[in-house]
Amino acid sequence: MGNSEQSPVQSVDRAVTILELLARQGDTGVTEIAAELGVHKSTAFRLAAALEKRGLVEQPGERGKYRLGLGLVRLAGAATVRMDLTQQSRPVCERLAVDVAETINVAILDADAAVNVDQVLGPSAITTHNWVGQRTPLHATSSGKVLLAHLPPAALDARLAAPLERFTARTVTDVKVLRKELERVRLEGYACTVEELEEGLNAVAAPVFADNRQVVAAISVSGPSFRLTEERLAQVAGAVRAAAAEVSARLGYVATG
Question: Which residues form the IclR-ED domain (predicted)?
Answer without folding.
Answer: 71-253
